[in-house]
Amino acid sequence: MLRIALAGNPNSGKTTLFNALTGSTAHVGNWPGVTVDKREGVCKKGSVPMAVVDLPGIYSLSPYTPEEMIARNFLLEEKPDCVINIADATNLERNLYLTTQLLEMDVPVVVALNMTDVLQKRGDKADAEKLSAALGVPVVCISALKEEGIRDLVQAAYKAAQTKRAGTSVLAQSPLAHLIDDITIALRGKGVAHPLFHAVKLAEGDEPEVKAHPQEMQTVEAFKKKCADGFEGDYEALIADARYGYITQHFSAAVSRSERSEKLSASDKADRILTHRVWGIPIFLVILFALFHLTFAEDLFYLNAIFKIGFDVETGNSVLDSFVAVFFSSAGVAAPGVILFNLMGFVCTLAGNGIASGVSAAGAADWAQGLVNDGIWAGVSGVLSFIPQILFLFLLLSILEDSGYMARVAFILDRAFRKFGLSGRAFIPMIMGFGCSVPAAINTRTLADEKERIMTNRVIPFFTCGAKAPILAAVCGAIAAQYAGINADLLVFALYLFGMAMAVLTVAIMRQTTMKGEVAPFIMELPSYHLPQLRSLMVHLWDKLKHYIKKAFTVIVASSVVIWFLSNFSWNWQMTEIQNSILHDIGAFVQWLCTPMGFGSQLGKFGWVFVVAAVTGLIAKENVISTFYVLAPAIGALIPGWDDGESGIGPVVALMQATGITWQALIAFTVFNMLTIPCFAAAATVRGETPKGKFRYTLAFWMLTSYLTATAVYLVLTWWWTVFILLLLAALFAAYVALRNRAKSCPCGR
Ligand code: GDP
User: Fold this and answer.
1) Alpha-carbon distance 595 to 214, whole Å?
2) 7, 125, 394, 600 — which has fewest CB within 10 A?
3) What does the pLDDT read at residue 749?
4) Separation of 150 CA from ligand 1 center, angstroms?
5) How sure is the predictor about 157, in pLDDT bands with cuts at 50, 70 and 90?
């Protein structure tokens, strides 16, 4: 039976076409050794049945991803009788990039121009004959979705499969034509199949090819030396440029755009601004800030900041007053996120009072009342009270994601940070890290390069996740409440940015030291912008909410009980005051370790709570907050006139006062929690996603990075001039690395 392979970009409609061709005969398996689906079936739409193999969706035949490797090996080794290259006609230039590579193989190719129904709707036209003449292979217009043109396609594929075809290259007119010709002839002389394809890949410096054909590689090297003045730099990029140049010049005209559709591409217009070379990043920062402002600002309209307008409402009715304070305060009009936070605090206080009177009415023993009120409820409500606010932040982030903007962010960041060794592909899982590190770490499977995968897994936790967000919200809120002139929203924004900057910086350092290597090229589909669907947003939020609630009533309850127990009992199992408790002794024993970060020995007698909170955060980051909320009442019991405000950020403010911690040390504390070992679940996932035996380095990386960075942050914020010392140290380190790298790359070996 003739065998046809289907090749095309992701989202070009390959699956739809495959289903249209094979109907119910398809079956799905795996490609050997990888978890990529392999679909095979029989097409009975032509005069004879033909076997159809669906190759993974790919943008190119460079072996950077497992998908590309599979497709390439299949085409080269399994010799299908014909390749149907499906190309999305609405995105022709990008799709033809793969076509130009397929054409270099010695295999009959038929191009299926898909989505022609969309073209028709727009009033655009695809000229199959023109494109066929330019490419030198048959082109058939189809709509896989509407099953139009399928019979013609099958017929064309059947006809092509009866013929032989020698590869052709669009590079024949590029400056590299000579080189490619020479290598092709040499390879053909040796009887290598697909000589042109291999020749081009050799010129690109493609790794598997270089290994497979060392002799021909000498020709390439000699050529490169000879032309050293003519061509600068990267041959791979040069060839990619030549392909795109040719496509634009010769093939693009095959689809003619109507005036209507020229006007239609509002998406393109938006991209001109949003992905602008210079303005792209500043615009991203402004958008991000707007998100944090809407979520965390006490003074939404800057009324207080600019006009000194505040809203102190006193009606004499305390419940009414605290309800009004949900919306307005002396700081101004609250942002929606803050209103949600206040409302939840309001509800939690009422519920807490209800629970307290219920337990006492039931005649529970003192210890049991303490356990329920100050242990379980304090810990759980501490976390619960932040959930609506953090969900609101997620809603805004999901809107950005669903609208198609986040894909642009990966693109913008790729452009800015590629030279530092980061690729846009790696930014995608990192940005996912804003939600939760666990799925983000799993997503790194799409990264082909092992080093890139390891580095990305290491820095994903630096993108502040939903569980760390309450720490930032609580700490920044408490600092803002204590110090006039500091805005919580600006502070949270700065900390989020700081986490991202640390990710970029540490990857750049790893690229220069332990993880040297090339950055894989990044080709990505930019979906058009569209209005996010309410349903899909709600699904996102519901998932998150479920996750939070589940955690609050499992891990957080359990940890709160343990913390309450340890902070209320002494070593001889008697109930006691907190300063005689087991937890006090453990905390005080290790507290000195945190001295460089500002929350160690220099703090007053309750200063150990911070190290305890950081340690409980290793189980789940929400624990940092629940630990604060469990310990606050116990500490409060020892301080006359203590008012922890019961809910909201009250307990954190009270802890600040009780311990005498400075705002600088609190920021360092937050930075430490942001960068240190993430929660159990995330750490275990990262362990699973990185090569065996390497995880201990990742653990060491997290511990060292968080400790050193938090120390640096504390030093600089407390004594600004220490920044010069740190810069000097950084410069010395950079010089050392640069010298070492140069010594290593010196060909004379010295
Ligand atoms: P794959 O990733 O290449 O397998 O692409 P799919 O077959 O999953 O198609 C991607 C999207 O394009 C799906 O939403 C399809 O319904 C849609 N699609 C595929 N072919 C056509 C077509 O000919 N016309 C239109 N309008 N949509 C199509």
Assistant:
1) 57
2) 125
3) 42
4) 14
5) very high
Task: In whole angstroms, give the CA distance from residue 423 to residue 421.
Answer: 7
Asked whether 82 and 107 are in contact (CB, 8 A), the reply is yes
Q: Report the atom number in ligand 1 closest to the C-alpha of 146.
A: 23
Report the residue among 11, 37, 525 best suited for mutation to probe ligand 1: largest number of ligand atoms under 8 A from its CB.
11
DSSP per-residue codes, 664-695: HHHHHHHHHHHHS---HHHHHHHHHHS-TT-H
Ligand 1 nearest-atom number relative to CA 118: 26
Atom 6, ligand 1: residue with shortest CA distance: 13
Centre of ligand 1 from the C-alpha of residue 29, in Å = 21
Strand-pair partners of 8: 86
Sequence-ordered list of residues with C-beta below 8 angstroms from that of 527, at least 6 positions apart, any chain? 404, 407
pLDDT tens-place string over residues 238-284: 888 888 888 888 877 777 777 666 655 677 788 889 988 899 999 99
Domain map (residue ranges) of the chain: 2-161, 177-262, 720-750
Mutation probe of ligand 1 site: the residue of 14, 15, 16 with most atoms within 8 A of C-beta: 16
Rounded mean pLDDT of 527-537? Answer: 80
Buried b (16+ CB within 10 A) or exposed e, 730-747: eeeeeeeeeeeeeeeeee
Instruction: Classify residue 64 by its DSSP letter.
Output: T
**Residue 682: phi, psi to the nearest 5?**
-70, -40
Structure tokens at 528: 């058009």
Helix, strand, coil distribution of the chain in percent, nearest 5: 65, 5, 30
Question: Which amino acid, one-letter code, is at 660?
Answer: G
Ligand 1 atom nearest to CA at 143: 23
CA 60 to ligand 1 center in whole angstroms: 19
Pocket test for ligand 1, best of 6, 18, 145, 528 (most atoms within 8 A of CB): 145
Distance CA 53, CA 284 (A): 42
Ligand 1 centre distance from Cα of residue 72 (Å): 23
Whether residue 750 is predicted with pLDDT greater than 50 in this model: the reply is: no
Closest ligand 1 atom, residue 19 Cα:
7
Distance CA 473, CA 491 (A): 9
CA atoms of 452 and 520, how far apart (whole Å): 9
For the domain spanning 2-161, the CATH number is 3.40.50.300
**Which CATH architecture group holds 177-262?**
Orthogonal Bundle (1.10)
d(CA 233, ligand 1 centre) in Å: 38
Which of ligand 1's atoms lies nearest the C-alpha of 11?
A: 2
Mean of the per-residue pLDDT values of the chain: 87
How remote is the CA of residue 13 from the centroid of ligand 1, in Å? 4
User: What residues does ligand 1 touch, defined as CB less than 6 Å away?
Assistant: 8, 10-16, 57, 114-115, 117-118, 143-145
Tokens of 436: 């939760």
Please give the Cα distance from 526 to 55 (Å, whole number): 22
CA distances 330 to 311, 312, 488, 496, 646, Å, are 5, 5, 15, 27, 20
* Nearest residue (CA) to ligand 1, atom 16: 145
Residue 458's pLDDT is 96
Q: Which one-letter DSSP state was computed for residue 489?
A: H
Residue 526: both structure tokens together: 């930019």
Q: What angle do CA 560, 566, 571 make, to 5 degrees?
A: 165
Please tell me whether residue 26 adopts helix, strand or coil conformation: coil
| 316: amino acid identity, one letter | G
Q: What percent of the chain has pLDDT over 90?
A: 45
In this prediction the pTM is 0.70
